[in-house]
TrEMBL record:
Keyword tRNA processing: no
Tagged with keyword ATP-binding: no
Localization: Membrane
Family per similarity comment: Belongs to the TVP23 family.
Coiled coil: none
Transmembrane spans: 50-68, 115-136, 142-161
InterPro entries: TVP23-like
Membrane topology according to the record: Multi-pass membrane protein
GO BP annotations, alphabetical order: protein secretion; vesicle-mediated transport
Species in which this protein is naturally found: Penaeus vannamei (Whiteleg shrimp)
Record keywords: Membrane, Transmembrane, Transmembrane helix
Protein's UniProt name: Golgi apparatus membrane protein TVP23 homolog
Amino acid sequence: VPLLDNDDTLGFGEEDEPKGKLKHPVVTLFHLIFRVSALVVYLFCGWYGSGFIGAFVTIVLLVSMDFWTVKNITGRLMVGLRWWNYIDDEGKSHWVFEARKGGLQGRVSPVEVRVFWATLVAFPVLWSILFLIAIFSLKFKWAVIVLIALTLSGSNMYGYIRCKLGKSDSLTESMKSMATGLVQKQMLGSVTNMFARTPPTNAPSSTV
C-alpha cells in the first residue's frame, strides 16, 4: 500500500511547534530507555548468571514496550513516519506506510532524526551479534530471548524503512531493477567479448 496522499490523512504531531533542538525530549527519552534497559538486563543477567525466568520475563516486557512505543509514538513525533496493519471486510491483511506531509515535515528536529535512525538500526545489529554469540556459545535458551528482541526491533526497523522509501513496494522494485541491470550488463559483456575475441590462427606447418 503506497503512502496516503489524500487530504483525509490523519495529521501528525502537535498544533504548536515546540522550541529547542530536542522538540520532544520526553519522547526521545522513552525512545531510548526501553531498548537500552532490555540490552543492559540481558548483558548483566547473561554475564553474572542470574535467573533465566526472571530475565526472560523482564526482557520480553521491555522489548514489547519498546516495540509499541517506537511504532505508535516516537516514529510519529520524531521523524513524522507511521506504519500499521489492518484487516479489511474480506479478511485480507493490508500494510499502510505513511509520512508527514509537506510543510509539516519541517517540525521534526534534525537531532531527534539522527537519534531515531541511529538507534533504530544499531539495536537490531547489536541483537544480531548477541544472537550469534549465544548460538556459538551453545546458550540456546538465551538465544531465544535475543531472537524475540531481534524480531521486534527488526520489525520496527523494516516498517520505518518502508515508510522512508515512500512506497511499500519500492524496496522490492529497487532490488528487481538492480538484479535486472546486473543480468543485462553481464549478458552485454559476454556478447561483446564473444565478438571481440579474435579467432586463433593456426601456425604454418614447417616443411622439411
